[in-house]
Amino acid sequence: MNFTSVRHSMKSKIQPCLPVWLFLLTVVTSSAADPHTYTTSWLGNTYGRPEEHILQDITDLAVTPDGKVVAATVWDEGGTNVAVFQNGTMIGRGLESGTGDWGRESNGIVATGAEHFYFSLVQLGSYGGVPKGQAQQEVKRYTYDGRPSGFPGGVQYDKSCLELVTSADAKKKPVVGLVVIKDELFAADKYSGTIKVYQLPLNGQAVKRSWPVAKLGRLDADQ
Question: Whose CA is closest to 77, among 95, 47, 58, 54?
């Protein structure tokens, strides 16, 4: 069979299907005239620049007296796992806040202080001085423009982190609650099953005091 006969054969087989296709198209088109009224909204990331990328959801947030909102998430494809908003505008994006960059993963927990906010993350082994096969649960300190803020005795290359535990099974036992009360930072450490208290401003890794709690969770404070 030559090419011409094949083409004619295919044409003869396709033509009978055409009325059926047009009928289906008519049905689909007519369904668009449904009398019910509805509103369609778009929910997504409008901004393409990392400095404006809005985190995909919120697992924790804290608010300062002057109206800064610090919001965190556990995973964000754009790498913005913690961000600072004020008056409807992002004013800070937490650099190095997780989503796998250099072995960092977010725990999605935040607390706000007078000059800094604090963010719970885990540093996986083979990065950041953590041995391979280990994980290090940390609390990272930031200024409100999103820059890591080092302190004497802090861990990681920029000295911005408290080290709560380093262990092979630490990844799934994070800091699940943070709050600042006056000049103290409280951390709910799931690995040890304790509330740990650190003096502010941070100076070294010393725990000021601690006590056990059976079921740890988010932390907040009343008057």
Answer: 54
